[in-house]
Amino acid sequence: GAGVSQSPSNKVTEKGKDVELRCDPISGHTALYWYRQSLGQGLEFLIYFQGNSAPDKSGLPSDRFSAERTGGSVSTLTIQRTQQEDSAVYLCASSPTAVRQETQYFGPGTRLLVL
Amino acid sequence: ELKVEQNPLFLSMQEGKNYTIYCNYSTTSDRLYWYRQDPGKSLESLFVLLSNGAVKQEGRLMASLDTKARLSTLHITAAVHDLSATYFCAVLSFGNEKLTFGTGTRLTIIP
Question: B60-73, pLDDT tens digit by residue?
Answer without folding.
Answer: 999 999 999 999 99
